[in-house]
Amino acid sequence: MCKICELGYFLVSDTKECVTSCADGYYVVEGSDTEPKMCVKCSKNCISCSGIQGEFCSKCELNYFLYDENMPQGCQSRCDDGYYKTTENEIAKCKKCSVIENCITCKSETKCVKCGNNQYVQEDGTCGDTCPEKHRKGDGVCEECPSLCSDCQESGKYACDVCDSNTYILENKTCSKTCGDNYGAIKDTTPNWTCKRCSDYYCKTCEISTEETCVECQDNYYYKRERNVCGNQCDLTTHFVNVTEKSQTCLMCNKEFPNCQTCTSQRCTKCELNYYTQPDPPYLCERDCPIGYLNIYGVCTKCVDNCLDCDNYLCFTCEDKYGLSEDRLTCEHCEDKKCLKCSLGKEKYDKCESPKLVGKDLTCVDTCESGYFSFNNVSCIKCDDINCAVCDRFYCKECVLGKFLFSGY
Predict the structure, then answer these.
(1) Neighbours of 246 (CB within 10 A)
(2) Which positions carry the signal peptide feature in this UniProt record (predicted)?
(3) Residue 85 forms beta bridges with which residues?
(4) Which of 16, 60, 216, 269 could form a disulfide with 64 if both were Cys (CB 3.0 to 4.6 A apart)?
(5) Residue 324 CB: number of other CB atoms within 10 A?
């Protein structure tokens, strides 16, 4: 081992080698008449140092930090409380958290991570006595509440106590602008509406108050109103499908059309027992058919033309100015245009148009012939006495030729 190197060389203190310059991690100690110039190793993990004894490190090894203050302190693997890690001119340093008041630990000159004096780290990295709105006091830090949440103090940073207005609180205590599929909204003790799962899995949206009502079913499912459930098909014998922009609903025929057994969305197609489908819109079910119609298998079917009352295709009463044929199958127009009712063929009349009267041969006449009187200005009625030529309803007024009134009657 060398003890003294030639002129212009340095003696390495730990290896006793002679070198022209000191390597990283060593500092120069000037020699004397009796001591050679030497390269002395810096403190542990220091690659550049100075000072009489190398006590001042100016650069540390990788992953080690140098304290910023000009003091005899070696390289550290971490920064103490009150200091933060930084790099200046490619030198890793620990700098003091002196800019932020009451900051114990920081990660930059303006970003505190731990405050003292019972203060909380604010969102901007400073220290404060309390936390702003929509934040909670966490472990010494102001934690931002979840999205759409206005108060999360009790539930923690990932849950919400009170959501923003016009939003809903979900089962996992987060906030949403909508409840989502298979959920409905219910007002609870908080200012918010809470989303609760619909009891029917196939219900897409439900309303929940004292009772739950499904508003919209999942795709390809139908809402059955009387049972308040969603099914994959309707019983089309007693229901019909009502399609709206939002949903398809199974509606009971007898709810939409009273006394109806089967129907379409437009009309009743079959009435319940002892009710008959009416012939005109909205095709309701009634106890009787209208005049001029008869019941055929529960449907009001029109009688023959100009017939008012019929059964089994036989007519019993015709309209005014029509008479019933002898076979009762048709109503034919009376021959006399002044006749209102006629029967037993077209030439016989039951009632004539005023002022005409029904004569003795059931034709329409202007006046009653001898031996008849006008009854209610409708028809000619035969006098009670066959020898009476002129009479009224009660008395004979004039006898036929050769006969005389008795005591003026």
Answers:
(1) 11
(2) none
(3) 94
(4) 60
(5) 23
pLDDT single digits (tens) 183-231? 888 876 566 788 888 888 888 888 887 778 888 888 888 888 777 888 8
Rounded to whole angstroms, the Cα distance separating 68 from 76 reads: 12
How far apart (Å, rounded) are the C-alpha atoms in residues 34 and 101?
A: 55
29 bridge partner residues: 38
Task: Assess contact for 238 and 253: CB atoms under 8 A.
Answer: yes
Helix (H, G, I), strand (E, B) or coil at 203: strand
Three-state SS sequence of 338-366: CEEEECCCCCCEEEECCCCEECCCCCEEC
Radius of gyration of the chain (CA): 57
At residue 400, the 3 state secondary structure works out as: coil
pLDDT in tens, 320-365: 888 888 777 888 888 777 777 776 554 566 677 888 888 887 788 8
Instruction: Name the nearest CA neighbour of 356 among 334, 371, 385, 386.
Output: 334
The neighbour count for residue 232, using CB atoms within 10 Å, is 10
Nearest to 182 by CA among 203, 157, 212, 153: 203
Per residue, what are the HEC states of 111-130? EEEEECCCCEECCCCCEECC
